[in-house]
Automatic annotation (TrEMBL):
Domain of life: Bacteria
Name of the featured protein: Periplasmic binding protein domain-containing protein
Residue span(s) of domain Periplasmic binding protein: 2-256
Protein location: Cell envelope
Family statement drawn from the similarity comment of this UniProt entry: Belongs to the bacterial solute-binding protein 2 family.
Amino acid sequence: MVVMDLTTNAFQITMANLAVKLGKEAGAEVTRYAPEGSFGDYAGQIAIIENLITKKVDFIILVAGHPKALVPVVSKAMKAGIAVVNIDNRLDTTDVVSFVGVDNGAGGKMAVDYIASRLGGQGKIALLQGETGNPVQILRTMGFDLGAAVHPGLKVVAKQGAHWTEDEGLQVMTNVLQANPDVDAVFGESDNLAVGAARAVASAKTGKKVIIVGYDGQDAGYKGIKDGSLAATIRMDAEAMVGLGLKHAIQYVKQGGKRDGIPPETYIAPELVDASNVAKYMK
């Protein structure tokens, strides 16, 4: 079973589809579940997990909508003998089989380092954040802040939440441009945000080239790099993350609830994708 945070987020849909595909290849039946509400609907996730406990499923691959709120129900599932593997958004608990995720702090800094290299270390930059308080948002912003500190010639002129979506990326970036028409670069904490920011820049018609970097490594980001509206994206290896999480869950079940040979946490390095290597990832 795979429990996502949201059914409309491109990266989470990719992970869920991979879980079904890789589960089938491993001989495991995997079903997708997600709340019907918006990002952060952790109450919906709790209800889903409670239902899965009642159904006595063997394992749950969880993308947590909240780092703390889901801890009690996850502990309940583990006590019921259900293997819970936490991927992507990290829970504030070690009471899971394992955690598998991407080093989002390193990815956030990687984005700023790239922007600094493109701007010669000098310029005005804006940050479009994801869902405020989401574990991934926190880490990507921490990486951004670290990168900005390392490059003192970069001036952060805006830092605003935009809920991961393209439409909010468009809206927030439109506001940023009104206040800062001379902004040189933007880091969107998801490819959707970056694409929305690119739409805002195109609509503003300032004639200025703005360096826009996204995050996730989704088709929309790759297409933006290909057409020149985006400069780069920070790629997360969804298949590696889901595959390893699934492997840990199946191993734990086969070992009768023992963690032998299963690392408590695994971080997968992010990768910069730009015009030089985007063809490798485009479908």
